[in-house]
Amino acid sequence: MVLRWGLALALLAPVVRTVVLLHGGTPGMNYVWSPCRMDALALGGSAAAALRVPGLASTLLEHRARLLAGAAAAFVACVVACHGLPRTTFVMQTLGYTLLAVSFALLVLALACVDLAGDAHIGARLWRVAPLRMLARYSYGIYILHKLLQHGIGTPLMQSLGEPALHSTTLNVALFFVGRAAFTALAALSYHLFGQRFLALKARVR
Question: Do residues 150 and 178 lie in contact, with contact meaning Cβ atoms separated by under 8 Å?
Fold first, then answer.
């Protein structure tokens, strides 16, 4: 049931984005509004649910190489159909976002299968390195916080420094790294203060 609803929502998302654009909506709306990006959310949830279905999970583990190939094929299809990865074109805003969602959902699913299967080749070990696992743990907080920090602090700060600062390579590079360190640290803090407590609630609904 979860898989069916996930796939249905994924198919509905490009329709919603098309309607938004045809009725005067902006590319920014399609980029940030949750109903417009439900394909990415639904496909990610469907991938997680698929691994909890015993028969389906074993099939996915057996064909994990095909999942990686599917991820690559969806990404290439997006680049070809959209003539690159331009965020604001009509094709990218409607079809492209869904192809990217399919690509990354398949990639994450394939890597999860690689980990569950215990693959020991160098490609599998690369995805198990501690820095990547840390970023995965804090990724949702990073996703939530980065725009708030960028628009609430970073952009106003650079604008307050005047026009030369906006075109300074050194300052922009420094802001890039300082900003990422800041929102990663805040994401880690939010995970340990709040996220873990919410994740602990899963045991009560199983």
Answer: no
